[in-house]
Amino acid sequence: MSKPLLGILLGAVLGFFDGMTAWFTPEVREQMVLIVASSTFKGLVAGIVIGFVAQRVNSLPLGILIGLIVAILVTLPFALMEDPATGNTYFWEIMLPGALVGAIVGYATQRYGIRKQAA
Amino acid sequence: MHDDTHIGGAGSRFPQTRGSAIIAARSGDAETRNRGYAALVAGYWKPVYKYIRLKWHQSNEDAKDLTQGFFAQAMEKEFFQGYDPAKARFRTFLRTCLDGYIANENKAGKRLKRGGNAQIMGLDFENAEGEIRELQLSAGTVPEDFFERESLRSLFEVALARLKEACETAGKMQHYRIFERYDLREDEAEKITYDQLAAEFDLPVSQITNHLAYVRREFRRLVLEILRELTASDEEFRSEVREVLGVDPE
Amino acid sequence: MKPLSDGLLRRLRRVADLPDLSDSKYRLIRKLGSGGMGNVYLVEDTVLRREVALKVINIPDPPPDLTARMLREARIIARLEHPGIVPLHDVGELPDGRVYYTMKRVQGSSLERYSKSIEPLSERLRIFQRICQAVAFAHVRGVIHRDLKPENVMVGGFGEVLVMDWGIAKLQEAPDEKAAGGEGVASDDFSSGPQTRSGTVLGTPAFMAPEQARGQVEAVDARSDVYALGAILFFLLCRKNPPLPEAEPAFTKQLAWDLAAARAEDRPLSRPLRAICTRAMAWDNSARYDTVTALIADIEAFLDGRAVSAYRENLLEIARRFLFKYRFLAGLVLTYLIIRLLMIFFFRP
After folding, report:
1. Among A22, B72, B187, C243, which is least packed, fewest CB within 10 Å?
2. pLDDT > 80? residue B45
3. The domain C108-312 is classified under which CATH number: 3.40.50.410, 1.10.510.10, 3.40.50.970, 1.10.150.130?
4. How far apart (Å, rounded) are the C-alpha atoms in residues A73 and A67?
5. One CATH from 3.40.50.720, 3.30.310.50, 1.10.3720.10, 3.30.200.20 for C20-104
6. Cβ contact (<8 Å) for A97 and C336?
7. Which residues between 108 and 137 in chain B have a beta carbon less than 8 angstroms from any beta carbon of chain C?
8. ipTM exceeding the 0.85 mark
9. Given C20, C61, C147, C298, the catalytic residue
10. CA distance C273 to C342
């Protein structure tokens, strides 16, 4: 499996499960579908970017750092959104796990997946 | 070497040796026996004399008598018949015999005129005495080690004498002089190059190296020949060669 | 007449020992050392203008079996073209009839000396792997070394590992040639038995398999080299020679005791690693690794954090190995889970 494809799949799967954890917060259970969809989407986007970076950069620490930064950038707009029903923001609840998911994808794409040689 | 193998090289095999003087000294034939004894005396009289002087603290006159007496009695009483190469090296055996002989002589209180017929050996004791003075022995010298070292020294001295004789006979004294100049120089610090020798002898460098190689080859052959004479078996010969020539790299 | 001085005597001993290379293309530079069978000299190949090592039998008038053995060694090395085996350049005969061969000059130090300077366990194991690879190659070519020991392994200046001294190697039918249906190489055991080599004891007893030490020449096969490699591994792990394989069960007990007492990087040796060494050095050759390749596979598995064939792990050990192998990923996932739990229980709006 190529590194970009691994990034996409892992980003999407981890994003999906990260979104599913919202079920443990009863206040937002009604918006589960939206949360899971948006979480999967941001995981997917972050995975693409991280996967393509891993294709070019061969460094575990740098891969993790880039994963972390990309995840923060992609998650930031969602973390800043207000809940239309309550007006609350869930900045840290979204930011911290989202950033960690990015770091995990960064690690995985550096360690695994096939790096295609440039022609 | 395997029959199916042919490899290059000058081709001449290791030369025939004169054979073991120890075995000759045990021969039933008187002439062979005498020849064997003569070779053993030639190889060992000097270390024996020096050893008697050092270990037994004998005067040079007594040491002379004891040396001659020892070889005379060794021949008379066939000391060397009892030598077994599987048990010890001949050098060690000879030293043990010598210690026993001198201890007996001392016990019996004999002092002079041992082995009257040994005078015919014509050994140069003055020279040996001079060498003892040159060697500047220290108080800590172990007599047994000293005997080993002197045996080795004697071996090489005999080899050098034979080498000179062989070069003279073969009309290759220039070869010998090149060897003398290059390999026998006393001054360790003096560095001589082939170019210097070439200038000195008015010869091309290639000839200098060839001459040197010839004499070195002869020298090795003679050292091995003497070692063959002073050992009783192939096994002992090989082990002696390893010990005598096994010099650590510089 | 002055006696020969000690210095002159020493020089003459050296002169009498020098090989006569006057009719060859080699120019003598100096003596490098001496082994059981021959002396090694540094010489210059005057045609190619490079320095090579020249090995020559160190006894004069060598018996035919010794000359044959020296030639055999040369032929064995010649057929082993591998980065871990010193390449042979030339074979010849001196004017006095002694056989010599020239090979690449190896600059470095013996494993015995080199191992003192290497601390990380992984580096020691990587070096060991390279030794094994050279021996495995020789086995495939039908050659059993029979004298493997740290002294016979050289580590070059650039970390290259070279297995030396094939003087008492045994030729067997080469497995690759057999598999290919080729003619094969007939069993060729010239040595006079493992106890003697020119009147001296062969090899170092501590690195010799029990069957080899007992003189059972027919029983000596690739597994005897596996034992010696296990002994080298022991040497690298414990930094001392292994116990002498004199009697069972005392030997196995002592081996286990020494391995348990050994430490690497301030930690006791792990059980799988100890098991690899113990299996390679098993008293009974049927209990050892069948091939050096199997030993290499276990070392590789150990270095990669995978299970080794020499040791059966329990569940706890499997979990610990996995966690250790993927410790960074496990750390990230664990951090994620902790943060999630903290959010769920403590950060409710």
Report:
1. B187
2. yes
3. 1.10.510.10
4. 10
5. 3.30.200.20
6. yes
7. 127, 130-131, 134-135
8. no
9. C147
10. 40
